[in-house]
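Reopening this one. Same input as before:
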Amino acid sequence: MKENNNLEAMRHSCEHVLTMAMLRIWGNKIDAAMGPATDDGFYFDFDSDIKITEEDFSRVEKEMANIIKENLPIVKDEMTVSEAREFFNKNIYKGNAYKHEWLDEIEGRGEKVSVYWMGKKDGDIPDTFVDICAGPHLESTGKIGAFKLLKTAGAYWHGDEKNKMLTRIYGTAFENQEELDSYLNMLEEAKKRDHKKLGKELDLFTFSDLVGGGLPLWTPKGTLLRNTLDNFVWELRQAKGYQKVTIPHITKKDLYETSGHWAKFSNDLFKIQTREGHEFAMKPMNCPHHTQIYAHVPRSYRDLPQRYAETTMVYRDEQTGELNGLSRVRCITQDDAHVFCRESQLKDEFYAIWDIIETFYAACGFPALKIRLSLSDPEHMEKYMGSREQWDKAESQLREFISDRGAAFFEAKGEAAFYGPKIDFMAKDSLGREWQVATIQADRSMPKSFDLFCNNEQGEQERIVMIHAAIMGSIERFLSILIEHYGGAFPLWISPVQVHFAPVSAKHVEGTKKLAEEFSQLGIRIAVDDADETVGNKVRKAVAQKVPYIVVVGDKEIAGEDWMIRVRGVEKQEKMSKDEFVKKVMEEIKERK
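Same output, byte for byte:
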């Protein structure tokens, strides 16, 4: 943790060095807006009529290196809002509206202004740089390790497309050059595996300007991929006693007012006004709807648990500047499930979902999941429903669940849902990047809001507890992770095309299609390339599509002799009979390899 804190401070300091270098080079021709340290580095947004591109990086990096070499002290200071307004209205900052907007926010919170000096306090610009910042920072610029500027991008101020487009410069910093080089190599590999690039090359999904940003359109191959994964989740859930339900895509405002979502997420909703003047919303989540299925008839304790599952789309009004391929969309497909149970049943239900998660992710190539206990932030309880006492009890209970299962875990303050704590599962992909994937959440707030209960053994009304469980969560986001994890070379059981047949010539097309049909009848997903091209070109196309198995069909194959199978990633072909090959493929599919 100490190392991570030091890295955060280094990246935060490097971000200030970037800004100081930019001001040294361009002076009052640019306005420095804002920028944070991130998990992977840092960025800063600039407002300028000058077009700043990656071609300018060598110049900027040279000046940054000079600032680091100068070993300038980095000192925290405080100002009153009025002092800060006066300071940020002169010299290089004169006319910088971004700093004053920031000061207005701080004044609204009734706080003092935290600033960091880089160089001699109260020194002359550009030998000294100062910015509004909460930190943390290093003691001096000389303690910054290896750094690199990465790219530029356009970014709307506050992510709102109604605001001005700023120039965002991304960079990163590490303790030493070796760690930086390792990270840069990973970025190069990530570019090759970018799901947006592979999605197009493998014909999995597309976007249309006429449909709108953040609204992916899934091709037949992409839909096969989605359905294969979702069917597996349902198979696992069905074995645990879940039942499918179906709800509409819109709802009256009243439902979300009762659940508490309207007050907290109203700005994120797509709203609909009916001809009669009623206000509806496109559903951003499914849980409030599912409460109404539970509540539509009286429930006895004998009826519990009630386990509902549904894969359905939800809609959120994400800002255009925040959209990113499948990772951030406006139309989100959730493999959602909710369990309504008694307090005494909670632990068993949590463990049943945990079993599903472990089985699913092992089959998807993520056998080692890290466990995160996501807790409330005690200093900001206004963000959550319920009392501190209720949260302490709920968090202790989940901590006990994890410990009793014998799992290692770490805790994350402030990562809880607004209605309750949760157990999140973290997966590490083939590039070493960590992602939050599945989640199990305990909720006592919504059962209270909707007055959900069962009649217990004494005939009394007993308040129930609600579990929220997502395996993939957002199927779109999960697929962005999965595509990049495998670089598009999916395991056989997931692959949209499992066996690709390439007839040698036109006279072999009819025989090839008959063989392919045999495979298709067995449930094997096949493709036949009957184009009037050389067989070499057909094979190259199939390789580019990352198909697991390629079979070239000529006279011998049609006559029933042994086949030569091209296996993805293996240079030497495998020789076997058709029956042996069918058996091999069927076993791999069954075992989800």
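So the earlier flakiness isn't reproducible anymore. For the record, The mean pLDDT is 92.
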